[in-house]
Amino acid sequence: MPEAMADVGLIGLAVMGQNLALNIADHGFLVAVHNRTKARTDAFIQANPAESFGATGGGLVACDELGDLVRALKRPRRIVIMVQAGAATDAVIDGLAGLIEPGDCIVDGGNAHWEDTIRREKALAEKGLLFVGSGVSGGEEGARFGPSLMPGGKREAWEILEPIWTAIAAKVDPETGKPIEGARPGKPVAGGEACAAYIGPDGAGHYVKMVHNGIEYADMQMICEAYQLVREMGGLTAEEAGEVFAAWNRGELDSFLIEITADILKQRDPVTGQPFVDIVLDAAGQKGTGKWTSINALDMGVPGATIAEAVFARCISALKDERVLANEILYGPDTSNSSTIRDDLFGSRDSFVSAVGEALYCAKICSYAQGFQLMAAASEHYGWSLDFGSIAMIWRGGCIIRARFLQKIKEAYERDSGLRNLLLDPYFTEVIARSQGPWRRVVAAGAMGGIPMPAFTSALAYYDSYRHAVLPANLLQAQRDYFGAHTYQRVDEPRNKSFHLDWPHPERPQIEM
Ligand code: NBP
């Protein structure tokens, strides 16, 4: 092939890289592809010959060496990296940096830690190279037919990448906020608003992607709690629970995760014929972005307890053998009373199930409120000037947390771009005012029935803490001053003044040595 003909390079041809390359080619771009192991590149090219891109004008060009890929690209060069976060990403960037020229742009589409992105962007800028750290969400299917894209870096870097990222992103109907489905190989969807927008400088894109994943952890955990409640306390079969989720998916809870939950619950195991969910081991794994979000919430001093609880819920699920043992030893309430507790509080099974749906929606709002508060703190800390309405907008399609209610978040930030907390937006205030009764009764019923609900309960504690003008931290301050002379502030003095009380410590008994 003649040199400098390809529109974009893509390095790393595992599942995400391959699907992203095909998506880009479907949109009429010529993609130069490279992988560390050549056999993978060859197999990829063989499986996707030029004719599979039809009349789109796009296609793939195999490059055995990094140097071949660099030579194949038009200038300024755009090179997307889809390899493992960490050392692999550094290795690829180091290899490229010696081959490309000032003004060229490297795009890291992996799940990098945002501080690595800040470091890489700075180091490359010193060589005159542009760098975009872009969140890519939606898994394999999203990468292939429309991901949600969260690019961060210098604006001039984004401008170089923008035509490609806008073309390949998921599209939503601007009026309803609903994703426009129907992309097929060689036939991308036309029209709609792209789920890709400039997020902010250096690590902003990867940071926002990380918080997206943290929120995803909480969404999944809350769905699991709702499922356990309707099965254990509601007495529903897996299939009936699937019908409930399908019905919820037609209302305010309409989202990708609710939709796939309905499908999963209706699925039978091909081997035993039992409900599929019943033969899956209840021990969850994790890759780390939920943990990063929770650690960062602690570092920033932002209340992100619901997201952290979702991470801890996976940790305790992984202690399967220990839980089986504890089940033999530890006491809980008599579960034969579950239906009595339920009917005393709700009157009927149907109203219990509907209350669980309301509880799920309220808890979900609280976890998003925490995620957006965290992003607000990071935005201030790093000087990113994040646009929260735009972030909600690009999460409406393509990504795992896509949901109808993200349109409501977008509208909330349109009403007030400086909104301090989602809960304070009139729409969300009203939803929780309306549904808090059922939410509280569900949490009470679950607690009385001994059903673990770490995310539901932590979200309710967040809501009640946030709306309390006075918390018992007055006593806590006094305790700290008592045992450690940590000082305290007074309600009748300015916040910046500290006081210490000379506590009348009683004589302590001498410990005999
Ligand atoms: P992996 O994260 O498993 O990356 C492996 C690919 O990178 C292989 O093709 C490997 O080549 C290649 N690679 C190259 Br080129 N140089 C490498 C090096 N120096 N060290 C190690 N590997 C090297 O692929 P993935 O699952 O497609 O994910 C790609 C990125 O996208 C990751 O950062 C991931 O976190 C992120 N992501 C994944 C998802 C998802 O749903 N999977 C979603 C969103 C984001 P080889 O053939 O020689 O091993």
Name the descriptors:
513 residues, alpha/beta, N-(1-d-carboxylethyl)-l-norvaline Dehydrogenase, domain 2, Single alpha-helices involved in coiled-coils or other helix-helix interfaces, 3 domains, 7-stranded mixed beta sheet, two-stranded antiparallel sheet, globular
Taking all Cα atoms into account, the compactness measure Rg is: 26 Å
CATH superfamily of the largest domain: N-(1-d-carboxylethyl)-l-norvaline Dehydrogenase, domain 2
Distance between the termini: 86 Å
Which strand order do you get reading across the main beta sheet? 3-2-1-4-5-6-7
Please provide the count of β strands: 9
Largest sheet: 7 strands, mixed
* Fold-level CATH name of the largest domain: N-(1-d-carboxylethyl)-l-norvaline Dehydrogenase, domain 2
Give the number of helices. 21
In the predicted model, the low-confidence regions spanning at least 5 consecutive residues are none
Proportion of residues in helical segments: 40-55%
- The CATH architecture of the largest domain would be Orthogonal Bundle
Mean pLDDT: 95
Written overview of the protein:
The chain has 21 helices and nine strands. By secondary structure, it is of the alpha/beta class. It has three domains: 8-202, Rossmann fold; 206-320 and 330-460, Orthogonal Bundle (N-(1-d-carboxylethyl)-l-norvaline Dehydrogenase, domain 2), CATH 1.10.1040; 472-513, Single alpha-helices involved in coiled-coils or other helix-helix interfaces (Up-down Bundle). α5 (114-125) links the parallel β5 (105-108) and β6 (130-137). The structure holds nicotinamide 8-bromo-adenine dinucleotide phosphate (NBP). Nicotinamide 8-bromo-adenine dinucleotide phosphate (NBP) is lined by residues 11-17, 35-37, 40, 82-85, 88, 91-92, 110-111, 136, 139-140.
